[in-house]
Amino acid sequence: MASITLYVLLLINFLSILCCATAHTETEPHPQHKTYIVQLDSDLQKPSPFPTHELWHLSLVQSLADPITDQELFLYSYTHVLHGFSCRLTEAQLSEIETWPAHVATYPVTFGGKLLTTHTTDFLGLRHDSGLWPNSSYGEGVIIGFVDTGIWPSSESFHDRGMPAVPERWKGQCEENYDFNSSSYCNRKLIGSRFFLKGSHSSGGILKVSHGSHVSSTAAGNFVLGVSYAGYAKGTARGVAPRAHIAMYQVDPDSDALPAEVLAAIDKAIAEGVDIISLSIGFEGLSYDQDPVAIGALSAAEKGIFVAAAAGNKPEASHLINGPPWITTVGAGTMDRGLTASMTLSNGVGIKGYSYFPLDISTVELPLYYRKGKSGCEATSLNRSQVAGKMILCDNSFKEEISLELVPALNRLGAFGAVLITDRPADLLEPEDCSIPLIAISQSSGDSVRKFAIDTPGAKVESLRFQSTDIGVKPAPQVAGFSCRGPDQFHPGILKPDILAPGVEILAAFSRKLPYMSLGGYSLMTNYGILSGTSMAAPHIAGVAALLKSAHPEWSPAAIRSAMMTTAYAVDNTGQSLTEQFTGIPMSPIDFGAGHIDPNRAMDPGLIYDIQVQDYIDFLCGQNLTRKQIDFILQGRGWHCSKRIEVEELNYPSLTAVFKSKSRAVEFSRTLTNVGGDGRSVYRVSVENAPPAMRIEVVPETLVFRHRNETNKFHVHLEVEEGSPAVLYCFLRWSDGDGHVVSSPIVALTLDDHGQ
């Protein structure tokens, strides 16, 4: 019976979707009618005079005392997921149907219409009336190229209503491919599409396009009203740079020739005139001369193209990808939004938790099943007689994720759903887990529910509510549990990742031809889905880069990155240092780089650390690379070493010292450029949060700028006590007393002989 109930709930959801367009039109002439699903006895056989169940069900409602003759009021007939039909009924008609001997149950169909938006733009502080959005014209005229798995062009995020004309400098085009008709899909928003699939075993069709749709809609999706997420939510979607143009360069991550194809995609993007490149793909364990992203991105930097790339989703040491200094490497952070659920026990106590279950359901008095002990919710220990039709309380103290066998077992045994007690309720579940009603609750809440289940004979869950959204969740941001940490295994003296951006529970465009999740044995499609990963964080930085490029077209890629990094923040909304999502443990710049992106402050950083391409070449000359390796990185272009730059001399916005021997001192040199105004400005230095084991001297302590674009140089002497922790850090900050604070992390790493 519980399985049938879930099927009914699924049908309610589908009907909500199908009926949403008529909820404000067709139902208006029948304000006394409400929509119901009527379940009939499955043992009742269709009378032989009726050739179909639909005709039989129609005859039933036409035989009511107040017969239903309006075809628009009768919706659907069901014969497989349940026996019954859906119909719009008055209270009197419903009451009469409920007296039928064959009547089993009636389920009201509700259209929730809850607001769900791409909250990331609000969390980033982007506003229509002030700050970076209006001052950059929302990224107008900037072209973002995405090297990814393709794009689903039918998404409303890629409509071109209100978009400016395609820039005349654009040299790209839209190629035809499977399920991609350039004349139908390309417009003033999606202005280019190329395919690099020669090593692929697929045609590059729809099974490959969804991820690219996620990232491109996040960075530059147009304003969309009436967004639906998993069929229940209505709201607004928008990318970070909604008036920027998009070009997709499709590669197949399963291709036998992926490195060559990624390099070709970047090469084509450069040739066609993109301003920004966003990469949510990378290659682990490849040195600069073997990494196509490193090689292609340096060519892009030479052409003034900003490159943002995901840091990767393996938090263990030495897994970070896309670490060269000419790439802005992006880690993922959480937001202050939580997708919540709640339940009320039969004693009246309300419990709050988290869930992705996508239906708006109302339940009454579900039996609560609980068996004490850690085996109480193991799939092999459950049986149908115990759990069918009940809400199961699981106190396995889930640490990492729920068992792969648990949900299928509960579904198979007819359980209605489960309450999961965990140390990390906000991030235990994934959308694909929630094919049945699941709610994750904290240990403290679990204690009260467990006591209630033990002490109360006939304990029940009075009601459940899903689809709630909480704004202002604390602490936020946090470093995502999956986000790759530094240091970079090849060059630990360059702090990576560079910066954090929202990458957890991001609402992004989805292809309706791909299943988003399973529900009641059915695949649920959606226009927009909730996704997490550094691949969702990187396009946020690409979008911010597009805004900054529009506001400051003269800025180099390094200047844009510097503006982001030196204005980032490293405290959460409780005023504490950033912590880890799962454990709450304090993090360091090895985990979050310079901090979390603050787009509005990045618009006016005051000072920047600029780097020219020749500086990168001189940096390569200072590493243990052969001329042949450097030649391959630079793709055979004419190059020369004007000098050999050690990592401490590269004009990077962060300062990292690596100690592998008894030497405990290092000298840094940096140059700052005034971009804050034409008048005289004086910046004074401070070193904040330095632990006793770090001794820092900055010379000079004051920098005076008399005009715009003037430069000043300073030096930092760092000493670290022997025997100090493996990671020490503080912040170097230059302030002008007029609102500009130019912040850089100083990190001291002590590594063993294996670089760990």
UniProtKB/TrEMBL annotation:
GO terms for biological process: proteolysis. One of its GO terms (cellular component) is extracellular region. InterPro entries: Peptidase_S8/S53_dom (IPR000209), Peptidase_S8/S53_dom_sf (IPR036852), Peptidase_S8_His-AS (IPR022398), Peptidase_S8_Ser-AS (IPR023828), Peptidase_S8_subtilisin-rel (IPR015500), Peptidases_S8_3 (IPR034197), S8pro/Inhibitor_I9 (IPR010259), S8pro/Inhibitor_I9_sf (IPR037045). Its main location: secreted. PROSITE patterns: SUBTILASE, SUBTILASE_HIS, SUBTILASE_SER. Residues 1-23 form the signal peptide. The active site is at 148 (charge relay system), 211 (charge relay system), 535 (charge relay system). It is found in: Secreted. Keywords: Hydrolase, Protease, Secreted, Serine protease, Signal. The keyword Secreted applies. GO terms for molecular function: serine-type endopeptidase activity. It holds the Pfam family Inhibitor_I9. Belongs to the peptidase S8 family. This is Subtilisin-like protease SBT1.7. It comes from Linum tenue.
